[in-house]
């Protein structure tokens, strides 16, 4: 699962930075390019919840293979796009089905014991982050070749096909065995963990393996998906998703005008800003590897770790907004990479802990939809705030982060009981 996640983001990141240049070469105006980009975001917004819930209904294997293959189709079409229409058409299957990482996270949630989930999710994010760091470098080199964008897109599609093969070869039959041995308890889990040094596996829930579900009537599948989505909408998870939205927008506002603000405030060239962003991404990968010791330090209290990381993130964004020199910007960027990585993992963990593992795909899908809303809202808020000052967007991000911290404090009793996270459906 870790190798496909690395290859997934590596493949995507060799193509995405080059797309704006390609659509411009096809004769599209900036307005048309912006509309196509917005439509892709809107498709992601509405499809992530549905596809995530669908993976709970039909099983991870069937849904993950479907999403990988249709994403590969989209990148093949992208490589063959010689008109703006074909370019826009190629984004449709990717916009609807490019939720491979979310389903992979749901699969990990099915397989890993709850106490080990933050550690495994952190390593998963670290593996994905390495792919995202290396991809743009390789893509920049390939695009220098003749017909470079098409070759890059075809390489990305081939990477997705390779991922489909890797997913097909996963030991799904062993998962079925684990499901049948559910009643044997955690004693064997602990024993196997000691034997091979890996995080102990828990019995697979109904989301991981659903061998008969893919052959149900499509109408039955759709009805089941809609019923599950309604259950999430009527649940008491509104504050968790609100915190995720507020913190996502706050962080997006920090990055929204980063290069422009550094140029206006300190005269820093875009090249240095790019190096600084790459530096932060690298530190984010390292932070994912440190989640294990950090969660043990907090005694697996996800709520308290999320609260502290959010407060630290808020303080660092404020430090950046008030920074009198580039050294302060460098300091804030260094620690922000750690706090955002920890916060991102903690909010996913809190969603799964409070919502229950039975609908992990649905929960992760809804979370992705919430983040998509943030990606749509943040550029608008950034543009308005920047009218007043280059420090306007991060200052607004600080205000939103403070609201998120206030929401978490108001609902503190909901998650804490004697210092531990309050579990649901356990």
Automatic annotation (TrEMBL):
Transmembrane segments: 62-89, 149-170, 237-256, 276-298, 305-323, 392-410
Domain of life where this protein originates: Eukaryota
Localisation per UniProt entry: Membrane
CDD domains: MFS_MFSD9 (cd17390)
GO molecular function: transmembrane transporter activity
Keyword hit for DNA damage: no
Membrane topology category: Multi-pass membrane protein
Gene3D superfamilies: MFS general substrate transporter like domains (1.20.1250.20)
Keywords, ordered alphabetically: Membrane, Transmembrane, Transmembrane helix, Transport
PANTHER family named among the record's database cross-references: MAJOR FACILITATOR SUPERFAMILY DOMAIN-CONTAINING PROTEIN 10, MAJOR FACILITATOR SUPERFAMILY DOMAIN-CONTAINING PROTEIN 9
Listed name of the protein: MFSD9 protein
Organism: Alectura lathami (Australian brush turkey)
Lineage: Eukaryota, Metazoa, Chordata, Craniata, Vertebrata
UniProt gene name: Mfsd9
């Amino acid at each position: 699962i870790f190798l496909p996640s690395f290859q997934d983001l590596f493949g995507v990141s060799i193509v995405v930075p080059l797309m704006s240049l390609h659509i411009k070469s096809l004769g599209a105006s900036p307005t048309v390019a912006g509309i196509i980009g917005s439509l892709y975001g809107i498709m992601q917004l509405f499809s992530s919840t549905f596809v995530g819930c669908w993976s709970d209904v039909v099983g991870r294997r069937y849904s993950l293979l479907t999403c990988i293959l249709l994403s590969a189709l989209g990148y093949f079409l992208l490589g063959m796009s010689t008109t703006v229409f074909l370019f826009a058409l190629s984004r449709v299957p990717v916009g609807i089905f490019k939720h491979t990482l979310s389903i992979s996270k749901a699969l990990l949630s099915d397989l890993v014991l709850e106490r080990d989930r933050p550690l495994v999710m952190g390593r998963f994010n670290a593996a994905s982050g390495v792919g995202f760091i290396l991809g743009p470098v390789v893509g920049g080199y390939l695009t220098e070749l003749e017909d470079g964008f098409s070759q890059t897109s075809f390489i990305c599609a081939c990477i997705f096909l390779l991922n489909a093969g890797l997913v097909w070869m996963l030991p799904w039959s062993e998962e079925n065995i684990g499901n049948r041995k559910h009643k044997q308890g955690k004693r064997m889990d602990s024993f196997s963990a000691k034997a091979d040094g890996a995080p102990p596996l828990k019995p697979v829930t109904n989301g991981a393996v659903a061998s008969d579900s893919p052959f149900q009537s499509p109408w039955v599948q759709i009805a089941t998906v809609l019923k599950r989505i309604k259950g999430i909408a009527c649940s008491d998870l509104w504050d968790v998703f609100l915190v995720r939205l507020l913190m996502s927008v706050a962080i997006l506002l920090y990055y929204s005008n980063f290069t422009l603000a550094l140029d206006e405030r300190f005269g820093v060239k875009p090249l240095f800003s790019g190096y600084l962003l790459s530096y932060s991404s690298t530190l984010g990968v390292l932070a994912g590897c440190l989640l294990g010791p950090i969660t043990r330090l907090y005694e697996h209290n996800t709520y308290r770790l999320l609260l502290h990381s959010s407060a630290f993130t808020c303080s660092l964004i404020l430090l950046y907004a008030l920074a009198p020199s580039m050294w302060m910007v460098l300091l804030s960027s260094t620690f922000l990479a750690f706090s955002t990585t920890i916060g991102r993992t903690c909010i996913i963990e809190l969603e799964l802990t409070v919502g229950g593992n039975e609908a992990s795909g649905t929960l992760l899908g809804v979370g992705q939809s919430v983040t998509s809303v943030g990606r749509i809202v943040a550029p608008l808020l950034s543009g308005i705030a920047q009218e007043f000052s280059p420090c306007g967007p991060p200052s607004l991000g600080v205000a939103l982060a403070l609201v998120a911290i206030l929401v978490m404090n108001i609902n503190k009793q909901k998650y804490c009981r004697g210092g531990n996270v309050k579990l649901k459906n356990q």
